[in-house]
Specification:
The chain has 10 helices and 6 strands. It is an alpha/beta fold. Helix 5 packs across helix 6 (94-102) and helix 8 (159-172) packs across helix 10 (208-218). The protein is globular, with a radius of gyration of 17 Å. The relative contact order is 0.16.
């Protein structure tokens, strides 16, 4: 029996299990990180995506790794022809592209705050499908999408705007629970220290129980998972 209804409505799902383990030189980032570097990273421009590693990705290139994630998503949510999906924080649109290739006639769209990422989207078939905007003010009508995703994005908002973003995700989802978010977290004080040495853009972070409390406060009804820096 479920005594706390909210905890029965959301579940942890590892949809990114097929991605290769990220290689992070945390000591190098820690030794070079400055307030100026963080400010540049938070502009989400060329330096963040395609500049030196100390500013962000160190080169955000399409390599096909999101294909398996797209298949995991489609299978888990049983998405078929005509399904509409929104990727909030889509960057250059790699996942949007692979979702459309995985199922013919599936309609995938993206939204990102970075004009640079959208102007450098890839492959070309995502052109026109990516929208400039913020996660806490989605420019779409109510119940527009069969599934809304946000992967490693929402923690870049302060808590009040993050709650609003989760409410926006609920709003544009067509049915209760058809959403998935993945955010930065940690399970131990040691992992927390590693995360803080590495992070450039996160405005909010916490242990899993902190995130679950935030989800409850927002009334978020979708699924979730954590990205743990190791």
């Amino acid at each position: 029996m479920c005594y706390e209804r909210w905890r029965c409505d959301v579940q942890q799902v590892d949809l990114l299990r097929s991605l290769p383990k990220a290689k992070r030189n945390i000591n190098a980032r820690k030794s070079t990180k400055t307030p100026e570097m963080i400010a540049i990273a938070k502009q989400y421009g060329e330096e963040y995506f395609d500049g030196p590693r100390e500013f962000g990705y160190g080169g955000y290139k399409y390599d096909g790794r999101w294909w398996s994630v797209a298949v995991n998503i489609i299978n888990h949510y049983d998405l078929g022809i005509g399904a509409r999906i929104l990727d909030v924080g889509c960057a250059k649109g790699f996942l949007v592209n692979d979702l459309m290739y995985a199922v013919p006639s599936l309609e995938a769209f993206g939204l990102d705050i970075s004009r640079y990422a959208i102007m450098h989207c890839f492959p070309p078939n995502v052109i026109g499908r990516l929208h400039l905007g913020s996660a806490d003010d989605l420019p779409f009508p109510d119940q527009s999408f069969d599934l809304v995703l946000s992967i490693n994005t929402l923690h870049n908002l302060p808590r009040s705007r993050l709650i609003r973003a989760l409410q926006e995700i609920n709003r544009v989802s067509r049915s209760r629970g058809n959403a998935f978010v993945q955010v930065d977290s940690y399970n131990t004080p040691e992992q927390k220290e590693l995360f803080e040495d590495w992070v450039l853009t996160a405005e909010y972070h916490g242990y899993p129980e902190d995130w679950l409390e935030l989800f409850r406060d927002a009334g978020y009804t979708g699924d979730y998972d954590w990205t743990i820096v190791e």
